[in-house]
Design goal:
It contains 17 helices and 13 strands. By secondary structure, it is α/β, with parallel strands linked by helices.
Amino acid sequence: MKKRVSVLLLIYVFVFSFTSLTTVFSQENKAKTEFQVKGFHLDLRIQVMTPKALKSFAKELAGFGINTLILEWEATYPYEKHATISNEFAYTRAEVKSFIDYCEGLEIDVIPLQQCFGHVEYILRNERYGHLKEDWKEISQVCPLKIEDNKTLFKDLFKDMASMHNSDYIHIGGDETYLLGHCNECSAKAEEVGKSKLFVDYMTTMSDIILELGKKPIMWADIVLEHPEAANDLSKDIIFIDWNYGWETNHFGDVGNLQQKGFTFWGSPAIRSSPDNWYITNWDKHFNNQRDFIPYSRNAGYKGMVMTSWSTSGIYGLTVCDEGYKVLDMQQIRNVYPLSGFRILIASYAEALKNQGAIDPERFVVSYAAERFGLNEKDGAELWKALSISRDLIFKGKPLAEIMANSNTAHEIFYKLKPLKNKKEFEHYRLINDLRQFYLATYQIETMYNSGEFSVGNSEDLKPKLEALKIESKKLDKRFKKLHQGFLYDSEIEDQNNIRNLAFNILYNRINKTRN
């Protein structure tokens, strides 16, 4: 009897020990693949959120488990020594401090993003900084060889950011420097030392300023991945963010090669990115981006994940006056529906961060529909169908009739579904699709107007259709305003409606002014 008890005791000890060890190994393995930074990138270049909306959004992010917020303030930041840069939507310094304090109370680290190479239209549009331009009529980029003047400017801007933000990090941008090696001097320098050296030398100067401020620099990784030859000259304190919006891995270049050199990487998918615009939201693309890229980044040893959400492409059209290219105004090339309409993708991102494996988009949407809208499983599947319906660009070759049919199908589903709660959130799906339908109907008339068969007499046939769309346009304006009051500034809501209606209004005026 004693022998049997001893054997049972040994078995128990073995099983308990094995189970404990398995649990420990499992926890250690999870810790190794857990992202230290669970971040969100907030783009305030256009569609500027009110201070109240910013805090509400931060609170929701904290509830999703987000611990880092990268803020691309751009011209909404209240620069002290360079107030020329700040625009009409700039926050006060008290508002910025209040927001950062609020986020820190939520245990969210607020990292400022201050571009210092490309994407600086909002700086170079001002004559005060015009001498820094790489090209006299293309204002997106500073010339990296004007190093002392650039250093003076960006040292001021970085110091300002450091004084207001308590984070250990400052993001210095560095992406999409399409004019690298463009001007005569830079072209000669690139010919001599290579584009990689031209880029790395400049960004080393910028990152050294950050290090002198006691901060760690963060950079977008695309350019150094495309031109890695001089990468070893960069400080290993720099953290690179590999942004991938649904492409093959190593889209820009060999990430593993730079990791072997000792560089740290974070990953970055997107919930709003090209070709998204007012009239296209590629829901399935963004769900699949999370499904594929987040597990890859975890397995590749990335230390952080930052979800981007771009309100625009960052490419602008300019209004100039005279041959000196004095910039009077600039308008973003592409607008996207405001961030308010994409909670489901943020929730999906939070879920993907928790899971070691890949998220299942359809299953997530069905579950979200039940929890958030009170929809049954069948209706949840219908919501997924509406979101995942193909939304093609009209110039990609697919017949317009087929594109419009897809939009009509989504419209029918969105209006058939009856959410029991969070109805305002659900209304965004309807409005986003209705804006697309308005655009397609406008394009259909524009196609007739531009056809070889169009004559002066045909304008009378088009006018009733335009009048019907004019009425619809005003309804859409009211719906957009109602959904975004308090989220965006009133003047920003008006601006966004005007931009969205611009193409239609031009077409409307041209056809209505046609004389028989």
